[in-house]
Amino acid sequence: MRRGGGGLVTALAGLVAAHDVTWVAAAIGSEDRVVAAEADGAFDERDRAGNPFRLRLLDIDPVEYDRYYNTFANPLLWFIHHELWNHPYTPEITNATRRAWRAYELVNEQFAAALAEEADGADAVVVHDYHLYCVPKLLRDRLPDGPPLLHFTHVPWPGPQSWRALPVHMREGLVRGLLGADIVGFHTRRSARSFVNTSDDLLDGVTIDHRAQTVQVGDHVARIRDYPISVDAAEFDALASSAPVQAAERSITAMRPERLILRVDRTDPSKNVVRGFHALDRLLARRPAWCGRVTMLARLDPSRQDIPEYAEYLGAIQRAAREVNDRHGTDDWQPIDLRVDDNFPETVAGYKHYDVLLVNALVDGMNLVAKEAPLVNQRDGVIVLSENTGAHEELGPWVLSVNPFDVEGTAEALEAALELPADERRRRAEAVQAHVRAHDVRAWISAQLADLEALGART
Known about the structure:
- The chain is α/β, with parallel strands linked by helices.
- The chain has two domains: 60-230 and 442-454, 3-Layer(aba) Sandwich (Rossmann fold); 233-438, Rossmann fold, CATH 3.40.50.2000.
- Helices cover 49% and strands 17% of the residues.
- A six-stranded mixed beta sheet has the order 4-5-6-9-8-7, with helices on both faces. Strands 12-11-10-13-14-15 form a six-stranded parallel beta sheet, sandwiched between helices. It has a three-stranded mixed beta sheet with strand order 1-3-2.
- Strand 4 (125-128), helix 5 (135-142) and strand 5 form a beta-alpha-beta unit.
- The protein is globular, with a radius of gyration of 23 Å.
């Protein structure tokens, strides 16, 4: 067994250390399928820290899983959530889309069936993210008197109009599925309000209380809440002093010029990497005195390369980097140091040494990079942060805010960050770090468990 690399896995790992947890997940790969068949239910496991938990792996038909994950959840739902579709041309709902929707329903039914078995005697059930929107209603139908149920969505929730890209039966199935939960959780107040508005606009036969942020379907009341996710500060403190990170630091300190701009992202179209490169291009064109003195280290994790839109975007990233380097670079200096691989020690090393952190996502549910990096940074680094990230709702007072579509404005913000006086840099960096440490991942989990407990869960 090896741990997944996503932010969701990181966030939920804290639950295993403090609570009696059964984790229900899809089997990925042939070895997982063998284990799932042999176990015939949940089995005992331990995480990398030695904490015990129960694991149940679902052996889902690979063809159905591919339709569910690679056609419906990604990119169709992901692109709706992040408002990435080019509506004059995409999406186009075809028979393949309808088959993928049926696969999405099928996979959600398998999860609901497994959860119904595992929930016997459980204190609470928590379901995560846009892959499992139908599960809450399906589980409530199976266990009308079951334990309190929370669904948490880790992506931004757009306005009602965005959901009209889907046929009525699909969009209503997703929203009504979520409303089967006792608590529907999001990262931000903006997303929570938007979900209430979506329920009001798209559904008949529901009662909306905008002030209380509740949606009533029949006798059932769903409470819409926001819980800003965060990170484990102690984990990053330990990582920062680890041998792999210290080794990676040597390559970064060897290449860095006077100032280092860092960006850490997946190669996902929503991360807006290309416009970030264009902003650096504009900065160097406007202020040629920075040529040779600043480098942007772009540490990018290749994402979903089996989906055409993602593969095409990685190509666009590589072309944009070459163009900027060809235009401004010299024999002994390149403005963009592009590294596309999964190298977390080098990422943490970059966190320690940036002078400016650029997070210019088009839209993000949260963006944990904006919270991870300042915890270990040693240079009073300044954060240039998209106003469309969930993190901006918390960190806005201490960052330089940018509109992610405004390349010229982003170039100006990068210039301002590079030239910010030392005392102002320190003030902002210390404030961000203090906030993240006070509002860590344990606080995120605790807030949800407290609300579940108020509904009757014995957490």
